[in-house]
Amino acid sequence: AQKVTQTQTSISVVEKTTVTMDCVYETRDSSYFLFWYKQTASGEIVFLIRQDSYKKENATVGHYSLNFQKPKSSIGLIITATQIEDSAVYFCAMREGTGGYKVVFGSGTRLLVSP
Amino acid sequence: EAAVTQSPRNKVTVTGGNVTLSCRQTNSHNYMYWYRQDTGHGLRLIHYSYGAGNLQIGDVPDGYKATRTTQEDFFLLLELASPSQTSLYFCASSDAWTGGSYEQYFGPGTRLTVL
Fold first, then answer.
1. From the CA atom positions of chain B, what is the Rg in Å?
2. DSSP one-letter string for A69-80
3. Could you report the per-residue pLDDT of B50-105, keeping only the tens digit for each?
4. Which of B43, B50, B94 to mutate to test the interface with A (most CBs of A within 10 A)?
5. Is the pLDDT of residue A79 over 60?
6. B12: number of CA atoms within 13 Å, CB side?
């Protein structure tokens, strides 16, 4: 069964620094899709970035990038030049490529960015 | 802009009561999902569907029924609500066709309290 694990429950950083959030996953599929989402203080959940398993190049969107290490089943989220408004809970998620289109999430990492 | 709405936004019921949570998406997406969010557990998948009349079982389905009446509407039913079902419920939709973007769009959530 597919599983996503985020072991960091919370991280605190100073504004304008770089932070990495960890995520490991389990799947038997050779094809899968990995996502990161952000939940703001208001509760809104928004999509940030995605990595397709067959792509070797790490995805990048704005100041978000991924560190995809397929042999380690790991997909880290890197936020560069953090801003106060990056303070939120970040979720890692996975959808397997074959059958079902089930999407499962990790337990989330709370990021606090301070001045 | 993709849109997912949920109603009600807040609901209080008593143990043994019947509750229906509603979700509507105007994205023309095939897939819809129901998650519950509890502290320490992240988002846990209850049920999901790939079209009208279809229902797939998620990871925490006990005590929940769901029905997809149209492509737009997905309902979550709690027929004998229990205090353990007190939670924040999110609905999401996604496009799952080849070439389409696979990320999920989330509704604003429904906070359910079972006394």
1. 14
2. EGGGTEEEEEE-
3. 999 999 999 999 999 999 999 999 999 999 999 999 999 999 999 876 655 589 99
4. B43
5. yes
6. 1
